[in-house]
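Memo subject: From amino acid sequence to discrete backbone structure tokens
Action wanted: Derive the backbone structure tokens from the amino acid sequence.
How to read it: Take the token row as a discrete description of the fold.
Attached in line: The record itself begins immediately under this heading.
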Amino acid sequence: MIDDRIPRESVNSDEQSGDGFTDSAGQTELVQPHGSAPHSRVHSGSETEKPWEQLETRYRQIVEDQTDPVCRFLPDGTLTFVNRAYRHFFGKAHENFIGRSFFYFMSEEHAVDARNRISLLKPAEPVFKSEHEIKMAPAEFRWINWTFR
């Protein structure tokens, strides 16, 4: 998943903005663009925690518990998030991923193909699937089906 989060400054929970609203139960609903995630309910907790931070915390908890490997990376391939299943699959600790390249485990040929296809992502076509061979150990290779968003 390419890390394309909206800057926090662009989220406004003001009823007039259209980015969110507060219902009669005091819950805030933020609407994310690009078809990101379904609308999420965020309960007002502490006054110091903003609705955006609550939403992000809830999202990370859900993704962390996924059984499928999930990662986020910048357009240049720098990993910004990996979930527990991703770490388990590759058999490495969290700190071995963040800030490193998503393409590290791919052969140069597959990395070039993935980079080229990622560069073609656009709002009208925000998803593609592909299969790439990755290196697990010195003599062990696996084929992985990836979904890029």
Summary: The longest helix spans residues 51-64.
